[in-house]
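Could you join me in thinking about how sequence relates to backbone shape in a protein? We need material for that, and I hope you will provide a protein of your own picking. Once you have written the record down, we can walk along the chain together:

…
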Amino acid sequence: MPEHAAAGAGHSKSGDIVLLDYELWSESGGKNELIDTTRADVAQKENFTLPAGYEFGPRPHIVGGDDFPAALEKAIEAASPAQEVEKELTPAEGFGERDPKQIELFSMHEIERLPEMRRDDAELNIGTPLTIRGRRGRVVSFTAARVRVDFNPPFAGRKIRAKFKVVEAITEPVAKAQALIDLTYGRGKDFTVEMHDKVLSVTLPDRAKFDLAWHAATKSRVIERLRAHVHPKSIRFIEEYVTPTPKETKAAEGKAEPKAEAAEESPKVEAAGEKKPHTKAAHSASPATAKS
C-alpha cells in the first residue's frame, strides 16, 4: 500500500500536541479488524462497540508518545497538516511478532481462584481477559482441567494498517491543557481552564470532584503532563460547591407544591360522597392517560 506523505515534509515534532482523525486496522488471515477510530461512519459500518457517552471526532494526540507503535508515530510526525495518509506496518513494526513462549498453560483450579473468576457473573470463554501473577492475557483454549492463556499483545503478529489526518496543531496554552486533560482523564471540555501570568487554573466539573480515580491516580498524571507540555509557573485545581440561595430553595420547593395539593383533592371528594361513576368509558381512558 502506498504511503501518501513524503518523509521530511512534516510540520510536527515529537512532543507536539495535534488534533488527529484516524482509523486503525489489523489484518490476519485475509481478514481486517477495526482496532480504533475517530470516524463515526467507519465505526457504524463495522458495528464497532464503544463506551457509553463516547463522542466521535478528531482526538488530541501527543506526537511521538506511546499511544501507537513507534513506526506509526514517525509517520504522524512526517505528515503534512490536513493531508490524508495511509500507512501499513509489518507485525514487527506494529505490535510485535507473536511469541509462542508467551502462551502458557494453567490448571483450571488456579484459574477459578482468580478474583475476576469469583464474581457471580463470571464466565470462562475463548477471549476472556485474565490477570495472572500481574500479567494480562486472554484465554485461547480450555478443557475441564487446563486453560491456555496468551500473554502476547492482542494484535501481535498482525499487519497494521492506518488511515489518518493531522487536522491541526494545538499550540494555545489553554487548549493544550484541555487536550491533555482529555487524553489523561477524558471530557476535557467539561473542565474550565484559564491561564493568567503563567498560572494555570483548572476548575473541576462535578464528575471529577467525587471520582476516586481522579484523586488517587489521574490528577498526578495530569499535573505531570501539564508541566511537561504547557510549562506553567504553577497549577491550581479549583473545586467549587455552590450553595443555593434562599430564593432558589423556595422556588424549588414551590414547584413541588402543586403535586402535593393535587394529591390531597381526591380524598376530599370521596369524603363528600361525590364518587366517580365506574363506567366502561372511564376505565378505558386510564391507559391512554398513562401513555400521554
Q: What stands out?
A: The helical segments are 40-45, 70-78, 108-112, 173-184, 206-209, 212-229, 246-271, 280-291. The chain has three domains: 17-96+163-169, 100-150, 172-266. Residues 172-266 form a domain with the Alpha-Beta Plaits fold (CATH 3.30.70.2210).
